[in-house]
Backbone:
């Protein structure tokens, strides 16, 4: 297995960051050993979480003032990618927890909050951060509802004001960590009598796992990322109070669109999966995979050419991805956002190419379930479809940003001037 020092210039890395990366190198081999059973049983990697918690990883991005490590977004991305090298499902779910903490951390620091919003937000952080730092709580982040890109329309799950708080009603699709977290970070829209649901009324609550009215439903037997236990949630009159708020009312739509890198945090897990596909291939060609006969397959020029291509693709992905996370900031420039979208696309598409090439290169025996590559291949297929930055959506956004100025985007006649005028139609329609 490669070391992070093989692909990052670590000369500018802080000591604390390096210590955490080295800690993952120690824990990782155990994650990799457990990954096969986690995948087979579609079971949550509980043991991995116990070890991550014991080693302080739950508080990675929590500010130092609150007892966390205060890692930057880039520093976190490198940790997520290292975890993903050993177990994709652990890294992906770990991101849901960390992303909840990132929002509490960075949205608060945004310059477009009013003093009143900041004051209210500070109180919420005082309640939420200690749950993790002192209580070891795990947060999930179930936003998706199925059937819609949740950045385009107000979230359907809703809350209504009642005495002493709100009641939440709704449905969440693919709630990773379902049944294995302490709090579900539930994003919903506050509904008011006679007013159509609006983005500006988006709320975010930490709903405790034992809240009456919260149910985990559905089946979880997917193709890949099986250890994420992403079942569905139903919320029926779930009561929440001011103390459960993760953000003041209206802060979500005011901040998140201006911090687009916050939505790219699913990529570290897949960057790690890509690295593991490459690492496995090298080990396999060298005849060094445990339990396998020590056959030297490096002697085939075709295999060497393929692994060279894998290295090139991986290096390209990592360079773009590293740049995007290093320059990530709120209120980015257009060029930075385009690089971020390109990085997201490169990772989510590239990971699949690498995993497919790894199977082709290693050959028939490598796709046996006794080896990790076939799991890596299945896991690699899941990244490109994760909202809000699916590969299709990245293509769509970049297709506009490359050829239009930003002030033209909303009025561009995108779908009306269509190549579809020359598309085949059945004769009856053409008549
Ligand atoms: C392993 C795994 C774990 C997950 N964990 C979580 C989690 O913890 N939290 C969470 O919130 N979600 C999670 N998800 C859900 C994920 O982010 C998606 O919401 C989910 O996969 C639904 O996608 P869909 O393709 O079924 O979308 P649909 O329900 O079919 O609906 C939206 C569709 O509209 C398309 N669309 C919207 N705008 C455009 C556009 N401009 N151009 C082209 N297409 C567009 C989208 O691509 C998408 O296909 C997880 C998914 C997986 C696979």
Residues:
């Amino acid at each position: 297995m490669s070391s992070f020092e093989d692909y990052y210039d670590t000369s500018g890395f802080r000591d604390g960051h390096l210590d955490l990366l080295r800690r993952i190198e120690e824990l990782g081999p155990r994650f990799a050993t457990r990954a096969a059973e986690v995948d087979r049983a579609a079971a949550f990697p509980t043991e991995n979480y116990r070890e991550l918690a014991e080693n302080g990883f739950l508080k990675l991005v929590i500010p130092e003032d609150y007892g966390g490590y205060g890692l930057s977004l880039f520093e976190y991305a490198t940790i997520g990618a290292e975890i993903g090298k050993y177990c994709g499902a652990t890294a992906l779910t770990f991101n849901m927890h960390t992303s909840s903490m990132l929002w509490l951390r960075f949205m608060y620091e945004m310059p477009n909050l009013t003093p009143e919003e900041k004051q209210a937000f500070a109180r919420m952080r005082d309640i939420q951060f200690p749950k993790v730092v002192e209580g070891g709580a795990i947060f999930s982040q179930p936003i998706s509802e199925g059937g819609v890109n949740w950045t385009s329309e107000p979230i359907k799950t809703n809350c209504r004001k009642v005495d002493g708080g709100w009641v939440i009603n709704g449905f969440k699709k693919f709630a990773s960590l379902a049944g294995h977290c302490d709090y579900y970070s539930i994003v919903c829209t506050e509904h008011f009598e006679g007013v159509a649901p609006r983005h500006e009324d988006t709320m975010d609550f930490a709903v405790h796992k034992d809240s009456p009215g919260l149910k985990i439903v559905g089946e979880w037997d997917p193709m890949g990322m099986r250890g994420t236990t992403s079942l569905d949630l139903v919320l029926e009159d779930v009561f929440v109070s001011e103390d459960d708020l993760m953000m003041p009312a209206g802060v979500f739509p005011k901040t998140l669109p201006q911090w687009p890198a916050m939505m790219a945090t699913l990529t570290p897990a897949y960057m790690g999966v890509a690295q593991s596909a490459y690492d496995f291939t090298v080990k396999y060609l060298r005849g060094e995979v445990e339990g396998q006969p020590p056959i030297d397959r490096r002697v085939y020029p075709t295999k060497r050419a393929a692994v060279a291509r894998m290295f090139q693709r991986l290096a390209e992905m990592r360079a773009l991805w590293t740049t995007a996370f290093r320059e990530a900031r709120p209120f980015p420039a257009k060029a930075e956002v385009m690089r971020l979208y390109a990085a997201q696309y490169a990772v989510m598409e590239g990971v699949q190419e690498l995993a497919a090439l790894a199977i082709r290169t290693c050959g028939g025996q490598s796709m046996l379930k006794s080896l990790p590559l076939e799991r890596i291949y299945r896991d690699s297929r899941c990244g490109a479809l994760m909202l809000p930055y699916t590969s299709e959506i990245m293509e769509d956004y970049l297709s506009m940003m490359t050829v239009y100025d930003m002030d033209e985007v909303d009025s561009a006649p995108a779908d009306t001037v269509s190549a579809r005028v020359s598309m085949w139609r059945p004769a009856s329609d053409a008549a």
